[in-house]
Structure formats: C-alpha cells, structure tokens
Design a protein that fits this description.
With 207 residues, the protein is an alpha/beta fold. The two termini are 17 Å apart. The longest helix has 25 residues, at 63-87. Strands 2-3-1-4-5 form a 5-stranded parallel beta sheet, with helices on both faces. The protein is globular and about 45 Å long. The chain has a single domain (4-202), classed as P-loop containing nucleotide triphosphate hydrolases (Rossmann fold). Helix 2 (44-54) packs antiparallel against helix 3 (63-87), helix 4 (98-108) runs antiparallel to helix 5 and helix 4 (98-108) packs across helix 7 (158-174). It is built from 8 helices and 5 strands, in the order E-H-E-H-H-E-H-H-E-H-H-E-H. 53% of the residues lie in helices and 13% in strands. The structure holds adenosine-5'-triphosphate and the ligand Cc1cn([C@H]2C[C@H](O)[C@@H](COP(=O)(O)O)O2)c(=O)[nH]c1=O. Adenosine-5'-triphosphate binds at residues 10, 12-18, 145-146, 184, 187-188, 191.
Length: 207
C-alpha cells in the first residue's frame, strides 16, 4: 500500500515541531504507521548540511548556494527515507519540506518561487507532498516563542521574517488544494484541533 506525505510548514517559531509530535501521537493511536522526519536533515548527510546551513560561524552561503544546499539535503531525504517509507505504507510527517524553500529562498531571498519550484521539481518528480499544513502566524508573535540563542536564519531581521510569512501565503494561493492554512496564533491544543480538521477535510487519510 502506498503511504502519504504530509508536510508541516510555517515561519520560525510557528509551532511546527509541537504539531508534528501531536499529529504523530494521534495517528499512531489510530493504528497508522507513522514516520517523522525533518528538513534540513533527516539523514546523516542532511544533518551535516543542516549544521552548515544554520551555523553563525564562518562564511554565509550566497542565496543561490543556500537554495542548492537545502535542495541537496532534500534530495537525499526523499530518495533514502521518504520514498522507501511511502512504498512501505507509512504516513510520513515532515517538519518543513519544499515549501520552505519556496517561501525562504524563492520569496524572502528573492530568487523566485518559479525558479525554486523548477530546481526542486527536477528531483522531487511525483514526490510532492499529498498535503501541506501551513501554520500561519505573525512573526512578531512567533519569534518571541523561540529560545534566546538564534541560528543563522532565525537571526535575520523582522522584515525578512515578514517576507517569509508573505511567501507562505503566496505558496498557499498558488497551491490551494495541496496546502491548507491554519491559524497558529492560538494555543497548541487549539491549533492541533484545526490541524486535525484540515487533515480530515483533505480526505487523504480516513481518521
Ligand atoms: N501555539 C503555540 N502557542 C505558544 N507557544 C507555542 C505554540 N506552539 C509551540 N509553542 C512553543 O514555542 C516554542 C517553539 O515551538 P516549536 O519548536 O514547535 O516551533 P517550530 O515552528 O518548530 O520552531 P522552528 O521554526 O524553530 O523549528 C516551543 O517552546 C513551544 O513549546
Ligand atoms: C527546509 C528549509 C528550511 N529553511 C530554514 C527555515 C529555518 O529557519 C531553518 C530550519 O530550522 P528549523 O529549526 O528546523 O525550523 O532553515 C530554509 O530557509 N529553506 C528550506 O528549504
């Protein structure tokens, strides 16, 4: 049986990891086989690339290099982890995926959403997510939720993070069927109810 790929997206501090945990626990109680992974990372090579991307030390990649390193981590994850799990019938829950590249590199860094779609489409082929939940919240609220020491992307200014949010809203308007917007300004339990509602409504799995 073919599984499903569900990705959770949104600006920094939107509550993605919190919701991934809640969804995975819920789906497991319903008898689904669930695999949780994340981006960048999820493979040993991907975790090395993650460190390289998020460190504040040394030379920062130019936007084009940044986009390609995120894509490299994704290509490795898709081939080594996601596709085999889907073939084995797993629900794969991925904490960030291709839409982060469209919003951060495509829109906020200004490289172009179409350009990022093409670069990623080259290796994703038909492995685009079955469903993407975008947690939508104003960055001036979500950034306050984060720990004190910030990584390279989190350290960008508020204007950049506002562009990221704008990027996700654009992605939603471009892919209104695959992506669902959830108000993430509420408490985690309230957000989880909305997330479950959207998963149910999408019809990709029966819960
Ligand atoms: N809806 C919420 N309201 C308030 N606080 C929240 C909410 N969801 C998560 N948090 C808290 O905010 C912090 C960041 O949450 P979490 O790690 O889930 O966000 P994230 O979107 O995965 O962050 P990042 O972008 O850094 O990966 C945690 O301390 C978490 O407990
Ligand atoms: C996949 C992906 C991620 N990013 C950015 C978004 C975040 O700032 C970091 C990842 O850190 P997190 O704690 O896991 O949220 O990387 C990006 O710019 N482009 C991407 O494709």
């Amino acid at each position: 049986m073919k599984g499903k790929l569900i990705t959770i997206e949104g600006p920094d501090g939107a509550g993605k990891t919190t919701q991934v945990k809640k969804i995975s626990e819920y789906l497991r109680t319903k008898g689904f086989k669930v695999l949780v992974t994340r981006e960048p990372g999820g493979t040993s090579l991907g975790e090395k690339l993650r460190k390289l991307l998020l460190t504040l030390e040394g030379e920062s990649p130019v936007p084009e290099a940044e986009a390609l390193i995120y894509a490299a981590s994704r290509a490795q994850l898709v081939k080594k982890v996601i596709v085999p799990a889907l073939e084995d019938g797993y629900i794969v829950l991925c904490d960030r995926f291709v839409d982060s590249s469209l919003a951060y590199q495509g829109w906020a860094r200004g490289l172009g959403i179409k350009e990022l779609t093409d670069i990623n489409g080259w290796f994703l082929k038909n492995n685009w997510p079955d469903l993407t939940i975008i947690l939508d919240v104003d960055p001036s609220q979500s950034l306050k939720r984060l720990r004190k020491e910030k990584d390279r992307l989190e350290s960008e200014n508020l204007e950049f993070h506002k562009k990221v949010r704008e990027g996700f809203l654009k992605v939603h308007s471009m892919y209104p069927n695959r992506t669902r917007l959830v108000d993430a300004s509420q408490n985690p339990e309230h957000v989880f109810e909305s997330v479950l509602f959207e998963i149910e409504k999408s019809g990709i799995i029966k819960i």
